[in-house]
């Protein structure tokens, strides 16, 4: 049975502080190569004996899986839009316990944020007081790299770009031109990575594919680490790291869904936030895991069942024939357990899932809706969520929505009322029927104020 990440809580001791140092990896824009650079840095530093704790900025589920595999310890999400500054500091400090370096991969471009202007990589770097390694895609430019880097470096006084990494450098001559131009910025050049087609990661509609789906993944990891060792100055990079700030006790997280929570986890249900699971454990909840793709039912004694997001559309025939899984869900409903599905989990709670080829597959049928991905339309953004109902969470929540499928609702009361990051009202989300409920929202934290 292949399953998704295995959040064990290593290095996240509640309330602990850390003297570890940290760095943020950022870029001018998405697609500059910061994920592969971060991945390779983790692999190379680990190979040299460093204990490196990985983190990812923003509501990303897939990059943290790669970062965790490279570091040999679970990655966490740090979200400067959805989390308070104290929450970010506390999670970063907990993640760094037992490590000598916290390496944080940014999201999009350094200053890119939600529509309200909050939640950027720069926001997180300033909150934690960490320097930024700036990854620049040098493809199809030469001397123009200097004003690009200089502009970013001077844009926000509270954010320090400590060094530059060039990516996709074409030739030795190209590198010399870039190096001479960058000298005028006064920023150290920490290395120049040549074009490496073998280090391009495959993608699908929600981002990168999961590591378990990449043939020869260990070889890919080794190649990325070796490329970083060959072309980047690891000693100079680690010397730039700065100590993390002292952190308060972790603010209370979202309350557990129940005392005994059964959580679906495999390649179809891989999108989970580790900080939520850690918070539930800290509150005394007992967590168990099961694989719907292996036709496993939730634990019979569970008083709550959580179906997280993932890729059920890629496994719809298997899920349609997972009779033990589906009957286990119905048994949990019949004994009045709380059953909650997010995004992909919400899709599976419905009656039918229509795949990309237009074929319909019977799902659990606990909620009377049909979802379909044969007419893909991207929906993406942060959400302020309001709810009234059986969820044991505060009335106001922060979450995120990212999907290409759509749902046809059949007259149920919605689970959430929703606003986007700018406060614009969105269509009501999801549905609830008794203690069965779900929506496309991925909940991150309680809303503040």
Please tell me about this protein's structure.
By secondary structure, the chain is an alpha/beta fold. It has two domains: 21-243, 3-Layer(aba) Sandwich (Rossmann fold); 260-446, Class I glutamine amidotransferase (GATase) domain (Rossmann fold, 3-Layer(aba) Sandwich). Helix content is 26%, strand content 26%. It has helices at residues 34-47, 63-71, 85-95, 121-128, 145-155, 172-182, 217-231, 234-239, 274-282, 316-320, 323-334, 344-349, and strands at 21-26, 52-57, 76-78, 101-105, 132-137, 161-169, 189-194, 203-204, 207-208, 242-243, 260-264, 286-290, 304-307, 338-342, 352-354, 360-362, 370-372, 379-386, 396-403, 406-408, 416-420, 425-429, 431-433, 436-439, 442-446. The strands form five sheets. Strands 1, 2, 3, 4, 5, 6, 7 and 10 form an eight-stranded mixed β-sheet that branches. The model is unreliable at 1-18 and 204-208 (pLDDT under 50). It comes from Devosia oryzisoli. It is an enzyme of class 6 (ligase). GO terms for molecular function: ATP binding; cobyrinic acid a,c-diamide synthase activity; hydrogenobyrinic acid a,c-diamide synthase (glutamine-hydrolysing) activity.
């Amino acid at each position: 049975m292949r399953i998704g990440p295995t959040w064990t809580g290593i290095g996240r001791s509640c309330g602990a502080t850390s003297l570890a140092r940290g760095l943020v990896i950022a870029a001018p824009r998405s697609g500059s190569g910061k994920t592969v650079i971060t991945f390779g840095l983790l692999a190379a530093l680990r190979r040299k004996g460093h204990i490196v704790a990985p983190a990812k900025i923003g509501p990303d589920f897939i990059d943290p899986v790669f970062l965790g595999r490279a570091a040999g310890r679970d990655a966490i999400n740090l979200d400067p839009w959805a989390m308070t500054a104290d929450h970010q500091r506390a999670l970063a400090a907990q993640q760094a316990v037992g490590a000598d370096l916290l390496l944080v991969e940014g999201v999009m471009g350094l200053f890119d944020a939600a529509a309200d202007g909050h939640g950027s990589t720069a926001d997180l770097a300033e909150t934690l007081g960490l320097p930024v390694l700036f990854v620049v895609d040098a493809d199809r430019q030469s001397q123009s790299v200097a004003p690009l880097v200089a502009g970013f470096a001077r844009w926000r006084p509270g954010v320090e770009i400590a060094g530059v990494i060039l990516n996709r450098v074409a030739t030795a001559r190209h590198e010399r031109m870039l190096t001479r131009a960058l000298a005028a910025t006064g920023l150290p050049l920490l290395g120049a990575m040549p074009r490496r087609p073998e280090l391009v990661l495959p993608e699908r509609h929600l981002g990168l594919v999961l590591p378990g789906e990449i043939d020869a993944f260990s070889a890919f990891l080794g190649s990325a680490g070796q490329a970083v060792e060959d072309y980047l100055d690891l000693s100079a990079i680690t010397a730039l790291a700065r100590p993390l700030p002292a952190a308060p006790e972790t603010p209370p997280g979202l309350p557990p869904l129940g005392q005994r929570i059964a959580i679906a986890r495999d390649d179809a249900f891989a999108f989970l936030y580790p900080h939520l699971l850690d918070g539930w454990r800290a509150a005394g909840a007992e967590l168990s895991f099961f694989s719907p793709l292996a036709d496993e039912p939730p634990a019979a004694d569970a008083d709550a069942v959580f179906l997280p997001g993932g890729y059920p559309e890629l496994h719809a025939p298997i899920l349609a024939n997972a009779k033990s899984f589906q009957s286990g869900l119905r048994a949990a409903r019949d004994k009045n357990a709380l059953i909650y599905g997010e995004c992909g989990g919400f899709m599976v709670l419905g009656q039918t899932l229509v795949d990309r080829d237009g074929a319909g597959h019977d799902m659990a049928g606990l909620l009377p809706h049909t979802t379909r991905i044969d007419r893909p339309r991207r929906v993406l953004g942060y959400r302020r969520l309001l709810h009234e109902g059986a969820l044991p969470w505060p009335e106001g929540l922060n979450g995120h929505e990212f999907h290409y499928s759509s749902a046809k609702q059949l007259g149920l009361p919605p689970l959430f009322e929703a606003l986007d990051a700018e406060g614009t009202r969105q269509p009501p989300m999801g549905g609830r029927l008794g203690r069965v409920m779900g929506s496309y929202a991925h909940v991150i934290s309680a809303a503040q104020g």
